[in-house]
Structure formats: structure tokens, C-alpha cells
Amino acid sequence: xxxxxxxxxxxxxxxxxxxxxxxxxxxxxxxxxxxxxxxxxxxxxxxxxxxxxxxxxxxxxxxxxxxxxxxxxxxxxxxxxxxxxxxxxxxxxxxxxxxxxxxxxxxxxxxxxxxxxxxxxxxxxxxxxxxxxxxxxxxxxxxxxxxxxxxxxxxxxxxxxxxxxxxxxxxxxxxxxxxxxxxxxxxxxxxxxxxxxxxxxxxxxxxxxxxxxxxxxxxxxxxxxxxxxxxxxxxxxxxxxxxxxxxxxxxxxxxxxxxxxxxxxxxxxxxxxxxxxxxxxxxxxxxxxxxxxxxxxxxxxxxxxxxxxxxxxxxxxxxxxxxxxxxxxx
Length: 330
Ligand SMILES: *Cc1c(COP(=O)(O)O)cnc(C)c1O
Known about the structure:
The chain has 10 helices and 16 strands. By secondary structure, the chain is an alpha/beta fold. The protein folds into 2 domains: about 220 residues, Alpha-Beta Barrel (TIM Barrel), CATH 3.20.20.10; about 100 residues, Beta Barrel (Lyase, Ornithine Decarboxylase, Chain A, domain 1), CATH 2.40.37.10. An 8-stranded parallel β-barrel has the order 1-2-3-4-5-7-8-9, surrounded by 5 helices. α3 runs parallel beside α4. The relative contact order is 0.12. The structure holds pyridoxal-5'-phosphate (PLP). Pyridoxal-5'-phosphate binds next to α9.
């Protein structure tokens, strides 16, 4: 963890386990000083087994006490409540986490998550719950809106209004916001281009007691780290020209195939990898579902033939962790 100079809030990274819950990834996150960000007790157990002390675990989401079969972990670093019901219940147990916070739901952006701060009754209950936090427990705020869905400019607008709501909560509750947790939803390139310093300056400008700003770059870290290899099964032509091709992968192995363009490389006869450009052909998957499209608007070379090998990039993150068994006869 980095402590920035001049008494300013320190940026801290947290690794979102669900995006790639693999031992080697979690070990790398730990080696590089990231916290573990979990959304269930099952993930907390995974983080503990990987060597994260409870004090380096952040717990988030609407189902964080699942499964109930395990005793909830105690002494976590931070826990961000998704509802006033949860915050009220958690506030009376100071052993759960060093930081207890609230995920805010802004009036301007529709989302199923977080506490709707513009509803007066809910806001009052939120303030009561924050006031009732034990003196030794810090208060934090969680903000999570996917910039990959709403765009980078609207993300900044939303971020600024979260800060303003944070100030309103500070004034009404007389408790300081010392931790701000910024959830994921960044495209890899948007995240690595994010001006972290500008985020910190904006946050400190409104919330002067901030000590830490957590960044949770889930898919931004893991999406680019995997490739999926597939064979061409059939090449279809019309009037002698290639129309599209069927491959032996399918959306069960690449569930986000149609959510963003994936880079694709074709292995040439001399063993080189040739990146496919944009064009008018499609790559379809092997299963009988209309939406089983693996790549769209590609320039497939006229020489493409059954047995050729393609590599599909950006296949990590939710492609791998949400992949499912389908059409395999079991
Ligand atoms: C899933 C999740 C992340 C990571 O989100 P991405 O969309 O993968 O970037 C971060 N924080 C929380 C609380 C999450 O649930």
C-alpha cells in the first residue's frame, strides 16, 4: 500500500476476486500490495486461504453474508453496506470491520445497488445508522458505476455528485468520511488512463478528512490476461466469396463475446499470428443459438480454411470466470 506525501489521502488498490478467482492471480494481487475485494463469505474464505489477513479484506455487494453456513469473518478492513437495513444491522457490531461504509445510489443513475440518498426517509435512516457507529469504527463510502457502461465523462459527473452527497452525510451525521472506495467497471485502457491524482484531489477537495481512496480495478486488470484458442470448423461462401465461418468455441466459453470487440489473430501457415482487421464477415460459434456469435464485422481472409487456428484476446475477466458448460453432452 502506498502512503502519499503531505498527509494526503493514500490511493490503495483492491483486487476484485470474482473477476478471476484463481490462486495465482490472488497471490499476485497480494504480492503487489493490493487488498482483497470480496462479495461473499465464500470469497472471503478464498482470500484468507490465500494468506490475506482479515484486516486486508474489503467486503461488498448485496449478498456478502452468503453462504450462511460459515461464521461471518470478523476484523475485516472494510465493509460497505448495500442498504440501510444492512447498515443498521451492521452498525451495532464493531467487531466486523475497521471501516463500515455505505454504497450510495445516485438519483441520476438507475442501478439496483446502493442506498438511494435522495429519498428523505432513507437518508434519515442512513444518518441514524452512521451516528450509531461505534467511536472506533471509521465511516466510508462506496461508489460503483461502470464507466464502461455510462462513459468516462458521466463517470466523473457521478463521482463528483457522490462527493457532494458525502459532504451532506458528514454534515448531518457529524461523522467524517475517512475512506472512499471506488468500484470497478473500467475498460482496461480507461482505467490505466485514469488520472488518479485528479481523483484524489477532487475527493480531498470536498471531503478533507479522507485518509484512503480505494480503487477496485476488476476486469481492467484481468480481462486482457487470457486468450482463447479455437479451430475453424467450416468456411461459408456466397458467389465465391467468404461470408462467415463457424468455429469450435461458443459463447459458453466466451460469454462476453458480444459485449465489446475482442482482438482476434489467425495463425498463418508459417506460424506467424496475423491480427484480423475490421470487415463484413462474422465468426459464429458451434452451438445452435442465434446469439452464439464469437466475432462481428471482421475481415476474414479468403484463404481461411477448416482446421485453421484463431486466438481470441481479452478473454479473461468475466469471459473466463463466468464461462459455463454447454453443448458438451453432459
Ligand atoms: C465486481 C466488483 C468490482 C470489479 O468490477 P469490474 O466491473 O470487474 O471492474 C469492484 N468492486 C465491487 C464491489 C465489485 O462487486
